[in-house]
What we know:
Elements: E1 15-18, E2 32-35, E3 46-48, E4 53-56, E5 70-73
Antiparallel strand pairs: 1-4, 2-5, 3-4
Amino acid sequence: xxxPEAVTFVAGxxxxxxxxxxxxxxxxxxxxxxxxxxxxxLPAGVSLAINGMLTLASTVPAxxxxxxFFSYTTA
Length: 75
């Protein structure tokens, strides 16, 4: 497991980040992403698709959410 990196969004602007780019080079692509229930839930207006696209709606207010853990399962 690598060190966690902060994901930063700007309030009032929609943005998506492809979490596939965060996977180590030796990890097989094509798996399924999810939010690990042992951590904090994503805030309202932030969603994670199973293909790894993390999306923030433009209506999400400014704030900080710590402790969100993502999970990746290979097919």
